[in-house]
Design brief:
It is a single chain. Helices cover 50% and strands 19% of the residues. It is built from twelve helices and nine strands. It has an eight-stranded mixed β-barrel, surrounded by four helices. Strand 2 and strand 3 form a beta hairpin. Helix 4 runs parallel beside helix 6. The chain is globular and about 50 Å long. It starts with a helix and ends with a helix. Bound molecules: ligand C2E and magnesium ion (3 copies). The site of one magnesium ion (MG) has 5 residues, from strand 6.
């Protein structure tokens, strides 16, 4: 009845969508168009071997060139992408884009030793067959599995641990590298280390930030590096911004580092410029 409708509209006015909810709502409807319009792109951040100073690989980090909002970072849309299920579409796009970049470098005989790291959230394992997707893409592009690394981040409670454990086994089985991202935060913890046979631990940047001044972080980071060694895993520190942080990590025997101290994530051409210049410096 009209009376009922009136009641409803009063309710809507009393509970207007707040700005954040509105932004989320409109973003969600933009997602589908964005893929078609090629609004997503990847930036690449180098990873550096702490002993040799060589770039060992790059991490692909997705960005959204939004027609009205400008360049948006994943912090602003990743959670929504996960909750709305769009992450499986976006994640498949990221994998394909990152691997075709790899393919292009190899065709040019360029930086053949580099590994491409791609972020995947636990939710992606639940929503789609990542292992199959990875296998198909590697085959299609004729790429060796060891040139791909998946960085797994935890964002939902681990109700599907068997599925993920099984997927990690299969990925390692075909030769893909697996790392545990943001180690020490959220749900990524010792449970992960025991259950998932990953290659690498990536220490979250929140533990790196106050090194070497914070005694707590000194203790935590030292312990994680020692633990990785005992477990025969590689260990990488993210968010390295200062010489002091780097020196601390060198002393503790961390394997690799990544952060603004070396380079922020870069658009493709700038990344290639960075790689070329480093090569020049080394051969001089
Ligand atoms: P992450 O994988 O832990 O990536 C590291 C984040 O720290 C990146 O933010 C990077 O730009 C930033 N960062 C790197 N070095 C430094 C530093 O020295 N100092 C500081 N303060 N920050 C640094 P970004 O690119 O905004 O990505 C945020 C997160 O979004 C990523 O964290 C990752 O979990 C997620 N993400 C990014 N791309 C993808 C993707 O393609 N798929 C999925 N599932 N998640 C993604
Ligand atoms: Mg990562
Ligand atoms: Mg991380
Ligand atoms: Mg992170």
């Amino acid at each position: 009845s009209s009376k009922g409708l009136g009641g409803n509209s009063v309710q809507i006015i009393e509970n207007p969508m707040n700005e954040k909810a509105y932004t989320q709502f409109s973003m969600q409807s933009d997602f589908k168009k964005a893929i078609k319009r090629k609004e997503f792109l990847l930036h690449y951040q180098p990873k550096i071997n702490i002993q040799s100073g060589d770039v060992t690989g790059v991490e692909a980090l997705v960005r959204w060139q939004h027609p009205e909002r400008g360049l948006i970072h994943p912090g602003e849309f990743m959670q929504l992408a996960e909750e709305s299920g769009f992450i499986s579409v976006l994640g498949a796009w990221v994998l394909r884009e990152a691997l075709s970049q790899m393919k292009d470098w190899r065709k040019r005989g360029y930086q053949l030793h580099l590994r491409m790291a791609v972020n995947v959230s636990v939710r992606q394992f639940i929503q789609q067959d990542i292992v199959l997707l990875v296998k198909e893409l590697l085959k299609e592009m004729d790429l060796p599995p060891h040139c791909l690394e998946l960085e797994i981040t935890e964002s939902v409670l681990m109700r599907h641990e068997h599925l993920i454990q099984d997927s990690v086994e299969k990925l390692r089985g075909i030769g893909v590298e697996v790392s545990i991202d943001d180690f020490g935060t959220g749900y990524a913890s010792f449970t992960y280390l025991k259950k998932f046979n990953a290659n690498t631990i990536k220490i979250d940047r929140s533990f790196i930030h106050s090194l070497p001044h914070s005694q707590d972080d000194v203790a935590i980071v030292s312990a994680v590096i020692a633990l990785a060694k005992e477990l025969n895993m590689r260990v990488i520190a993210e968010g390295v911004e200062t010489q002091d942080q780097l020196e601390f990590l060198v002393r503790k025997g961390c394997n690799e580092v990544q952060g603004f101290y070396f380079s922020p994530p870069l658009p493709l051409l700038e990344l290639e410029g960075y790689l070329n210049n480093r090569k020049d410096i080394r051969t001089r």
